[in-house]
Specification:
The protein is of the alpha+beta class. It folds into three domains: about 230 residues, no CATH class; about 240 residues, no CATH class; about 150 residues, no CATH class. It has 14 helices and 50 strands. The protein has a 20-stranded antiparallel sheet, with helices on both faces. Helix 1 packs across helix 2. It is elongated. About 40% of the residues are buried.
Length: about 800
Amino acid sequence: MRFFLGMNRLLTLFFLLAVFISCDNEVKDTALVYNIPDHSKIVIALSDIQEVTDLLENNPVFDQLESLSRVKEIKSASSFLNTYDLKSESFVTLSIEGKNQVAITLLTEVHDSQSDSTTVVKRIEYNDVEILEKTADGNTYYSANKNGSHMASSSILVLESLIRRNLADYVFDESFVTLYERTHDDISVYVNASDEQWLYQFLLGKNKTDAHNYGEWYQLEPSMTGNSIYMDGLIVYKDSLNQKHSLYNDLDARENQLDQVAPATFRFLSSTTYSDPEQLIGNLLRYHNRKPVIPELLKDLMVNSQEVSTIELENGTAVAFSLLPFEDLFVDLDSLSAAKSTYRDVALYTLAAPLESKSIAPLVPNLSVGYLTLVDRFLVLSANQETLEEIIAGYQNGTTLSSQNWWKEAREKMSSSSSLLNVTSLEKFKNPFISIDEKDDKVLKSMDDTTLKAMISQYVHEDAYAFYRLEIPYGSTAAEQPLVAQIGSSKSESSIIAGPFLFPNHLNNTYDVAIQTEDFKLTLLSETGEVHWTKELNAKILGEIQSVDVYKNDRKQLLFANQEKVYLLDRKGNDVDKFPFNPKKDITQPLSVFDYDNNRNYRFVITTGKDLTMLDSKGNKVSGFNYRPDGIILNSPQHFRKGNKDYIAFTTDQKELKLINRTGETRTSVKTKIEAKSDLYFYNNLIQFVNSEDKLLHVNPSTGKVTVTNTSLDTDSNIGFTSRSQLIQNKNVLQINGTKSSLPYGTYLPARLSRINNKDYVTIIDNGENKVYILNDQGETVPFLPVYGNTAAQIAGGKSRYLVTLDGNEVLIYKW
């Protein structure tokens, strides 16, 4: 098998290491290990190239990032490897030459034969050694034989330095040689990690300085399963130097618990565990080369916990302590605080003086944290209250990292305890903190988060070395679950009297949220809770805001009515055409919207006491509609179609069910007296509703025949229908399409049946417990529900599904 089949994929190892790293064998009596180029950053020791081929074939990580400029550079520099057919132990190295140029070098036994695809361009005599300048695949490389070894490199400078080297008194790197003696196997990868960000920045085209060395050498043995790439190995470091890993020396790791409180929408997580806080404090002293002045509160937290962690979210960073079991908290939080508030019934404290974390950096970032909360057994601090609120929301909603299938599967293959655990989300990786080439940035942004989940690095430190595991989940064998996550919120200074209503945003394929406050102002919010605009109205909105497309261009408008006017607004809040429409009398029912033939030729029906007025989408009265008043109309007219006939249905104070046609004339006379308690619905070609005696009635619109069903209802019962589903609610018991589902006992508001993407869902609120549930049409609760909310809720969506609800005067926006 040609070396190309493995070595072309071997490049992926260089790439993978750059992405994700932020045995008593003796060295054989060979000069290979002493020929490794100076300043090599990555060294791969090979015994069986087929193992590399098997490992890296169809690699989803490489597939998504092979267009990065640095990866292309590596592929070009290593193209000469295609010409070799290796049969013995070899090294392939990566080093940086000049300011920022990749050099790939091969070290193996003397090699006399190569592929016919090579062409000798020039023969160069250098220090009595013949160097052959060759081309392969259009790229130049150089090769030579010396002291029983064959050397080939993309850089002539590297090759010349190896030829000049006197092996008798040269050692490449003592720590590398020691590690290599102890660990090398069929395939081992060694990485000299100069800084925790060096390899990441290298991949993105940078060459970060070697200052503040992160460690010395990683040794890794790569493997791959059907749903992850992982690498196990060692890292060595000096515990007496200013190296970050010296902070974790001899910490005696405990169980990592950060995943139980970190939101699943995290950007980056880091967890440090320890058994003896004095050991950790001593390591900090050595690291800083001074006695760290640790604030008393921080010291108390470290003594009374076993884990200190960082939670980086999109909009802020928090520091969390996993507290040891306690009956009474070891500190009086009220005495430390200048103010106290609550969020979702959880106390939030504003510290009288911000707490500085620099004394324990870099265990955690250098932050000034002024807000504190206690979430179960986790004490969490942050520089802003919103970050703590997001953590509380994720914990209460059950959408923490520990709930994710991909994490559960990865955790099964990891140690439950580690002195250092880092988890980097794909979103963090896609948004580098350094400026990069525009084309590279596009490659990163195109990465698919449905394939790649995160990068997990786990360390168990001993004395000057650590066991290391890198896990890269790229798929889950368990069914992919929908993640319910709060993505936005907005607090109003005034009480919310209407809404929240979801409204599609055609500009970015998201949903906005509309609310009306007690001063009658209408506000449109983004999915994250940012205010788009506010418009002053003169009365409360009746019913709901509906979305229509009057221009038939998929750009929706907001349609609604209050007591005085009918409004049609574009998404910027501007009035459309002749709107607002001012009827002569007060509007008494929510506006009805009909689209008879599903062609967006809308009809808007206004109820003013006994009268009905019909408008077209331009705001003109429809002259062909003439309804003759006959009693006060008690509900919004509804449009139903049976066969090829249209029915406009509503009830009046004369105990009549009216069924009229498009022109306002009677379509069918219903002789039975009707007192409707519920809205009117159309299901199975029958008009269905609950009457004042709590009976479910069916009305045949063709004949006007009324049938009293045997459905069991009581005064608290609620019904709902779509074209395909039926809902009957009796307090906490829901019957959906004949299937009964019981929720925990509570104070439930009327459930609501909605249709999204041709599927029916039920939304219901337990107002006493502040919980919002969503159930599917089989009566099953959607995973990760309920979430926090009360008073009102609405769901909608397309590719992404949204849930919006309230918490007092705060709007809560979720994706599910």
